[in-house]
Amino acid sequence: MMGAGKSTVGRALAADLGATFVDLDRRIERMFGASIAELFEDGEAYFRACERAALCSLLDEPGFAGARVVIATGGGVVVDPANRADMAGAGRVVYLELPVDALVARLSTDAARAERPLLEDRASLRERLDQLLRARASAYASAELRVDARPPVRAVVEALRAALAA
Q1: pTM higher than 0.70 for the full model?
Q2: 3 among the known binding-site residues?
Q3: Hey, which of 13, 23, 73, 102 has its CA 20 to 30 A from 116?
Q4: Is 8 annotated in some ligand binding site?
Q5: CB within 8 A of 90, min separation 6: which ones?
Q6: Is 30 helix (H, G, I), strand (E, B) or coil?
Q7: Residue 136 annotated as binding?
Q8: Neighbours of 101 (CB within 10 A)
Q9: Domain ranges of the chain
Q10: Is 4 annotated as a binding residue?
């Protein structure tokens, strides 16, 4: 889910593991020469197609299968069953779980909302996040691992490392 800390935690986890870190949103922006917000201007379906293309190109890169890579995806990538299947086939999928109250606290600034096209409307942030969480609940439940993202980053990384080692 947006605001859960995927990029921050992913970078820290990759550094700990000596792995490469990939932020899928940054890859999308490079591939399509536009910001996420600009891609959303052509509709969410168009953005999701761009997201799918970026994910597939990453997973198809020579040497990817044998590499140590931590990928931070956008929170909506899992709504596409093909993406879920591809990610599960490529490695371990983790859901950084954060309750709505914590998401609201992290995403309540205008800057945070401006970076996230699905939050740009001025509807209640809590209602919108709750709606997204409900709509994506079954997709998030398909993750192999669930980790509480409320603690500080270092604690989340340690919990992730323990879960991955188990």
Answers
A1: yes
A2: yes
A3: 13
A4: yes
A5: 59, 64, 65
A6: helix
A7: yes
A8: 11
A9: 6-154
A10: yes
Protein fold of 6-154: Rossmann fold (3.40.50)
Contact of 142 with 84, CB cutoff 8 Å: yes
- Nearest CA to 74 out of 146, 19, 139 is that of 139
Per-residue pLDDT of the chain (166 residues; tens, 9 = 90+): 888 999 999 999 999 999 999 999 999 999 999 999 899 999 999 999 999 999 999 999 999 988 999 999 988 999 999 999 999 999 999 999 999 999 888 887 555 555 665 666 555 878 888 988 999 999 999 999 999 999 999 999 999 999 999 8
CB 1 within 8 A of CB 137: no
Cα separation, 16 vs 109, in Å, equals 30
Q: Could you identify the residue written with the tokens 């994506």? A: 136
Half-sphere exposure of 27 (CA within 13 A, CB side): 20
What token pair was written down for 91? 């490695």
| Among candidate residues 108, 115, 146, the one with its CA nearest the CA of residue 26 | 115
Q: Which helix (H) or strand (E) holds 95?
A: strand 94-97
25 is in an annotated binding site: yes
